[in-house]
C-alpha cells in the first residue's frame, strides 16, 4: 500500500500531516506535482514531478495507483477514477470518497461548474479549519492502522 498525493493543490498543513504519518507508519508517500516541492529527507517520501498541463498529474496518479492504495485529493474526477480502480480516496477535510458518494459529488461538481460558466458567482470552499485538519489526521491514522 502506498499513499499518493495530488500535491499541487494539497494544503501545506495536510502535507505536513502526511510526512509525519509516512515516517511513523513506514509507508511510501508519493507526491505528484507539476512544480518543484520541498519535502523532508526520508526513505518513505518521494516526489514525482510531471509536465504542466491539464490533468497530467491526475493521469499520472490514475495510471500508477493500485487497488488498496490511498490517494489524497480534493479533485472529485480524480477521486472517481481512483475509486473505480479499487483504491481509496481521501480529501484534505478528512472525507473519504466511496462508490456510493462519488457519483453524487461529481454530479454536484459538474452542476456548480455549469453555474460558474454561465456567470453565477457560487463562491469557493471554506478555508481549511483546525477541525478539518484534525479530522483528516484522525481518519488517516485509522486508515493506516487498519492496513497494517
How would you sum up this structure, described in words?
This protein has 148 residues and is of the alpha/beta class. It is built from five helices and six strands. The protein has a six-stranded mixed β-sheet, sandwiched between helices. Strand 1, helix 1 and strand 2 form a beta-alpha-beta unit. The model has no long low-confidence stretch (mean pLDDT 90).
List keywords for this structure.
5 helices; alpha/beta; six-stranded mixed beta sheet; globular
Give a nutshell description of this structure.
With 148 residues, the chain is α/β, with parallel strands linked by helices. The chain has helices at 12-25, 56-64, 76-84, 99-117, 130-147; strands at 2-6, 28-33, 45-49, 70-72, 88-90, 96-97.
Poorly predicted tracts of residues: none
Structural class: alpha/beta
- Describe the largest sheet: 6 strands, mixed
Percent of sequence in beta strands: 15-25%
**How are the strands of the largest sheet arranged?**
3-2-1-4-5-6
Number of alpha- plus pi-helical segments: 5
Q: Please compute the radius of gyration using only Cα atoms.
A: 15 Å
Please, what is the average pLDDT? 90
Order of helices and strands: EHEEHEHEEHH
Helix content: 40-55%
3D shape: globular
Multimeric state of these chains?
Answer: single chain
Task: Find the count of extended strands (DSSP E, 2+ residues).
Answer: 6
Amino- and carboxy-terminal Cα gap: 10 Å
Amino acid at each position: 500500500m502506498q499513499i499518493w498525493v495530488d500535491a499541487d493543490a494539497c494544503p501545506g498543513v495536510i502535507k505536513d500531516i502526511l510526512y509525519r504519518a509516512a515516517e511513523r507508519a513506514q509507508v511510501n508517500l508519493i507526491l505528484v506535482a507539476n512544480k518543484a516541492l520541498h519535502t523532508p529527507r526520508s526513505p518513505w517520501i518521494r516526489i514525482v514531478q510531471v509536465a504542466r498541463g491539464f490533468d497530467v498529474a491526475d493521469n499520472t496518479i490514475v495510471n500508477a495507483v493500485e487497488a488498496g492504495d490511498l490517494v489524497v485529493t480534493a479533485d472529485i474526477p480524480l477521486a472517481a477514477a481512483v475509486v473505480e480502480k479499487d483504491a481509496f480516496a481521501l480529501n484534505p477535510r478528512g472525507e473519504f470518497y466511496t462508490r456510493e458518494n462519488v457519483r453524487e459529488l461529481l454530479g454536484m461538481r459538474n452542476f456548480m461548474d455549469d453555474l460558474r460558466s454561465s456567470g453565477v458567482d457560487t463562491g469557493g470552499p471554506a478555508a481549511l479549519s483546525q477541525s478539518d485538519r484534525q479530522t483528516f489526521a484522525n481518519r488517516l491514522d485509522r486508515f493506516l492502522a487498519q492496513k497494517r
